[in-house]
TrEMBL record:
The entry's keywords: Glycosyltransferase, Metal-binding, Queuosine biosynthesis, Transferase, tRNA processing, Zinc
Xref: NCBIfam families: Q_tRNA_tgt, tgt_general
Active site residues of this protein: 89, 271
Binding-site residues, substrate: 89-93, 143, 194, 221
Catalysis: reaction(s): 7-aminomethyl-7-carbaguanine + guanosine(34) in tRNA = 7-aminomethyl-7-carbaguanosine(34) in tRNA + guanine
Pathway assigned in UniProt: tRNA modification; tRNA-queuosine biosynthesis
Residue ranges constituting the tRNA-guanine(15) transglycosylase-like domain according to the UniProt record: 11-370
Binding-site residues, Zn(2+): 309, 311, 314, 340
Designated name of the protein: Queuine tRNA-ribosyltransferase
UniProt cofactor(s): Zn(2+)
Functional description taken from the UniProt entry: Catalyzes the base-exchange of a guanine (G) residue with the queuine precursor 7-aminomethyl-7-deazaguanine (PreQ1) at position 34 (anticodon wobble position) in tRNAs with GU(N) anticodons (tRNA-Asp, -Asn, -His and -Tyr). Catalysis occurs through a double-displacement mechanism. The nucleophile active site attacks the C1' of nucleotide 34 to detach the guanine base from the RNA, forming a covalent enzyme-RNA intermediate. The proton acceptor active site deprotonates the incoming PreQ1, allowing a nucleophilic attack on the C1' of the ribose to form the product.
Co-factor: note: Binds 1 zinc ion per subunit.
Subunit composition and interactions: Homodimer. Within each dimer, one monomer is responsible for RNA recognition and catalysis, while the other monomer binds to the replacement base PreQ1.
Amino acid sequence: MYKILKMEGRAKRAHMETVHGNIETPVFMNVGTAAAIKGAVSTEDLQQIGTQVELSNTYHLHVRPGDEVVKKMGGLHKFMVWDKPILTDSGGFQVFSLAGLRKIKEEGVYFHSHVDGRKIFMGPEESMQIQSNLASTIAMAFDECPSSVADRRYVQNSVDRTARWLQRCKDKMQELNQREDTINKHQLLFGINQGAIYEDIRIDHAKRISEMDLDGYAVGGLAVGETHEEMYHILDEVVPYLPKEKPTYLMGVGTPANILEGVERGVDFFDCVYPSRNGRHGHVYTNHGKMNLFNQKYELDPRPIEEGCQCPACRHYSRAYIRHLLKAKEMLGMRLCVLHNLYFYNNMMTEIRNALDEGNFASYKRAKLAGFEEYDKK
């Protein structure tokens, strides 16, 4: 299912086979929270820009349209017309992000819906049932994501509960995958390492979950307030305690530079809302840094966002035109920026894989990071 093809230091170049197709890693998963990429990007667009894996959100799809609706429509792949792998996160991050709308107990989490205020209960079994209804390729275990500034005692109690929840997730998924009415009987389960910025709690938790022989392992609870240096330190300390022969996923991270640093530390899977969110605000990524297309200096600029880029925006349109669309609040401007950013991320992952194949990732990383700094100097 998952095979390491090459290593350079801790960096892994791997191939993963799933029921919905193969994944070449390292990979960036394009985030479609509610079964759509924000910015009017279709699944045909995702095919065109080289997307390998799409990521959707368990909590949001449970709230609307309802996971039972998705199941009746044949599962998420049929519903959104996407034939490649899909990863669904478990709803655990909403335990963190909707802090004012939830209450955590041993059995699970009680939410008030952010849409209509109705009460929702989600525990490990419910999360697995929802993800089974969605029929994603990879399901994430239900966890709590404690704040990076939470005190040690709170984090330890939270991590202990997350470990107990993981066993319940594993038991429930085994049961669901054997049911006759389950759409995807080959659904994979990834566990999540937590522990805020307490490296000893993280390492202990990594050891505990590694013994459970899951399909993959994620590092969660980073990029939630700690510094980049703290995040890199945690990865340095924790990744060696996760099974090397299983995929490693760094959740919710991040910038192109974060991804390069993560790959160097042994991470296979990444996801982040940055490329789509920034694109919707006219901020676009290039090999020379990030540009704000709202800037006056692009008003008469006939060049594409980036010379030589093969994305749908750069192949046809100028900076001046896209700036006009953004200023006029035309949705096309937002869409073109999102397409460019997602293409940039997906293409960077292809470059990373090629560099690992050729054994020159270290020099590739140096050159890429040096390029990103060019705009910072202007």
